[in-house]
Amino acid sequence: MPTVHFRGREIECDRGDVLRDVLRAAGEPPHNGHSSWFNCRGGGSCGTCAVRVRGPVTYRTKKERRRLRFPPHDSGSGLRLACQTVVLGDLWVEKYPGFWGQRVEADESETGDAQDAEDAQDAGDAQGPTG
């Protein structure tokens, strides 16, 4: 059973759970401030659930890659959308400042091997959540 480490807590979940759902069920939404009320509810279109994730997860979905290419996000930041990220093992998750959680320090930004080779050229599109 994977453990998600977030904001000083250890949250157990099942392999295959969507990260956003895991965090919200534990009372730890992946949003900052008012974005807890003003978001797309897991649709992958608003970008307010952007987090840094370390550990095994699915590849980025097309929808996620598209959203993270537009401001205020930066496709090279290494962030993930919690609503599009499926837990595959133990994770360490960090939320950055800003309405969208986009304020990653320049030295903390990582390309993730060119976004994992642009996420294996869409190979994981069918692996991610549907919505």
What does this entry look like structurally?
With 131 residues, this protein is of the alpha+beta class. The protein has one domain: Beta-grasp domain (Ubiquitin-like (UB roll), Roll). The chain is built from three helices and five strands, in the order E-E-H-E-H-E-E-H. Strand 1 and strand 2 form a beta hairpin. The protein starts with a strand and ends in a 9-residue tail after the last helix. The relative contact order is 0.24. About 13% of the residues have low confidence. This is Ferredoxin (2Fe-2S).
**Which segments are poorly predicted (pLDDT under 50) over 5 or more consecutive residues?**
109-118, 120-126
Strand tally, please? 5
Strand content: 5-15%
Beginning-to-end CA distance, first to last residue: 24 Å
How many domain regions?
A: 1
Which fold does the CATH topology refer to?
Ubiquitin-like (UB roll)
Please summarize the sheet with the most strands: 5 strands, mixed
Helical amount: 10-25%
Output the CATH class name.
Alpha Beta
Principal-axis shape: globular
Give the count of helical stretches: 3
Oligomeric status: single chain
C-alpha Rg (nearest Å): 13 Å
Structural class: alpha+beta
The CATH superfamily is Beta-grasp domain
Q: Give the averaged pLDDT, no decimals.
A: 83
Task: Summarize the helix and strand pattern as letters.
Answer: EEHEHEEH
Strand order of the largest sheet: 2-1-5-3-4
Instruction: Give the second-level CATH assignment, the architecture.
Output: Roll
Features:
single chain, 131 residues, alpha+beta, Ubiquitin-like (UB roll), five-stranded mixed sheet, 3 helices, 5 strands, 19% helix, globular, iron-sulfur cluster binding, 2Fe-2S_ferredoxin-like_sf, Ferredoxin (2Fe-2S), 2Fe-2S_ferredoxin-type, Beta-grasp_dom_sf
